[in-house]
Amino acid sequence: MMIKAIIFDLDGTLIDSMGLWRQVDEEFLSQRGCEVPPDLFDHLPQGNSFVQTAQYFRERFGLEESVEDIMKIWTEMVHSHYCNVVELKPGVKELLKRIKDTGLKIGLATSNSYELAEKSLTFNGVWHYFEAVVTGDMHLMGKPYPDIFLRCAEVLSVRPKECIAIEDTLMGVQAAKAAGMQALAIYDEDSADHHPGIKDIADAFLMNYEELAEELHRRVNI
Fold first, then answer.
1. E strands along the chain, which residues?
2. Is-contact 164 219, C-beta < 8 A?
3. Do 69 and 95 lie in a common domain?
4. 98 in the same domain as 80
5. pLDDT tens for residues 6-47?
6. Residue 3 — very low, low, confident or very high, per pLDDT cuts 50/70/90?
7. What is the dihedral of CA 132, 178, 209, 122, to 10 degrees?
8. Residue 29's pLDDT is what?
9. Whether residue 59 is found in the same domain as residue 91
10. Domain span holding position 49
11. Which of 84, 110, 132 is the last residue of a domain?
């Protein structure tokens, strides 16, 4: 099957931001008198989208804030970092240019919000590469459900089996495979506990963007 599109996750895949979100979880919950449980993200019944994670926090910790208010608070907590600090992983910009130059379509399928995705990728000078952006505030089932990836393929006007998804988390790889896409996993330290599971189901596991570029060259000759 000819590949026509490469669809990227954002956090932990394109940008080095997962540690920031761990800090947000701790600060947000401690301000409300709650500790961060070790199984915090082990049981997300509707997936890990921005909306659904906020709903999960509200229900699990009995928070008074609405889902919309929780999302707003989180956005305010990380906004300046996404606009000014959080950088692309090494090699991302060069690879995006190579993909674009081949004529392949590029999509973004992230559990994060549209606002933060746009701010971050604009700050890093690569927003213009993405022809479709599907985010976790669009009221879709979150990863590991395939909905975000399926919607991204739909917007790109390609079939899921014509896509390669680039992910860093177990839930992300599960979502991509459930969508019927090839799934290439890129190393991120924050997902270290799940690396054995990721390697079991991903079509390839790459340590950095140099290795990812080589793998994509083998698969789609970029």
1. 5-8, 105-109, 132-134, 163-167, 182-186, 204-206
2. yes
3. no
4. no
5. 999 999 999 999 889 889 999 999 999 999 998 998 777 778
6. very high
7. 20
8. 96
9. no
10. 18-84
11. 84
